[in-house]
Amino acid sequence: MKIDLERIEKLAVLRLDESEKESIAKDLEEIISYFENLKEVDTTGVEPMVYGEKIELVLREDVVKDGLTIKDLERLRELFGDGYFKVKRIIGE
Amino acid sequence: MEITELGIAEVVSKIKSKELKAKEVVESYLKNIDKLDKDIQAFLSVSSDYAVKKAEEIDESDNKVGKLLGVPIAIKDNISVKDFELTAGSKILKGYIAPYDATVTEKIKNEGAIIIGKTNLDEFAMGSSTENSAFFKTKNPVNLEYVPGGSSGGSAASVRAKEALVALGSDTGGSVRQPASFCGVVGLKPTYGRVSRYGLVAFGSSLDVIGPIGRSVADVARLLSVISGFDPHDSTTANVPTGNFEEYLTGDIKGKRIGVIKEIRDFSIQEEISDAFSSALKVFENNGVEIVEISLPHLKYALSVYYLIAPSEASANLARYDGIRYGFEGSGENLRDFYEDSRTKGFGKEVKRRILIGTFALSEGYYDEYYLKASKVRRLIFEEFKKAFDDCDAILTPTTPTTAFKFGAKATPLEMYLSDVFTIPVNLAYLPAVSVPFGYDKTGLPIGLQVIGKWFSEGELLNFAYVLEEESNV
Question: Which of A12, A21, B179, B393 could bridge across to A16 with cysteines, CB 3.0–4.6 Å?
């Protein structure tokens, strides 16, 4: 099966370079062709399964607790400073 | 007897009785790391100073309590440990320091465990050989020319090499059991919901589970007792009794029924593994177990189902890595270019491949045919397991179709995916399963067998593994 790699790259917010593009396109086609065997399974009336059998709504007490401090956050990222995340200046949009 | 030969129960009791110092235990393991890890490369980071300091605190304290008191433990580097760097094996997180403890980390710390280091993994736990780590390849301690398996390859290798007493890994499609099998150690994938995922880097949220790895079933049982339980921070954890799983290890399995999957004959399996499988069935029979044949006709679709569902969930979970909030950042003329550049340069090839598969499976025009279809077949697999467990108490399979392979041996991604064919169905059905070492092939590589149990039957499950362990030690 042929897949529109450019469309998928755009949706996934990825941009493959030319050398990667060819080999990944080949891999994806091979993998997606492998999935074709699912078509022979009759799933009429079958509910999709996501989170196990029992789905219970779990509630917890709304307790006020300490969150992360600025000090904790500072170590998350080198470019944190003055209480803000510093990001590069983005030109355009 | 060498200190590193002792199991958890002995180490803890000797530290409590002051027969042994926690510092001696930690230093014995650190010595092994020093000696061996330049070749094995199981660790991304070793926390020697932290570990020695923690051990000294235990030795100085009069209050010697905790189920894991002084136990050196290795943690897969996709599990948060406060103030430790967390990379998930990816460049995109490089430099990220976890600001909080995962629930499992908090639980093991509360029981006195000492974190000795963070172990290598396939990037974002996507892989079966640890070859996909963005940093380096971990070697199999049994034979350095072979892969340790993956994605928890560093954790399994560290335990096998006695660089840690026990370790934590995570299992989305076999990532605890397959490396445990390749390295000849015990690895457990608990029931989905048994162990909290809070603080685990998300990959496939309906499949991910944190699991223990050890050199004995008893060590794995002890570690599971500590990490399991309901957690308000993870609403998918189950509010079921946990208790002490070591109490189940009686060796008495008389009158139980073990299921053998009829369709397993359709898979190609290395001869020595088939032989080990047959002798394990004999062992069970000799222990008064009835062998019953069960049928899982949809088993052959498990790999397709998994490689649609896991990448779909991953493509959503990994959307957060945009170059702004974590580690690596790219460059670009506008915001979209910046995001694209960060993700393109920050992620490795296998991660990109899986994000693209998942994005495809969820995209308009393909969603019904791929993601939704897979979720429906997942239910059929689940229902078949449920029916099978009417006739048996546990199911025996090989953990993997072959023993460990050499570096670079898997030429295509699909070939690599096929090495998880027996472990994947277990995650799809939310079941618990354990891989236990059972002999070696003629190259000297460990063989692992997998026992799959009913939901939340880890105690009983580990008792089956315990019987196999006792027998293979003879």
Answer: A21
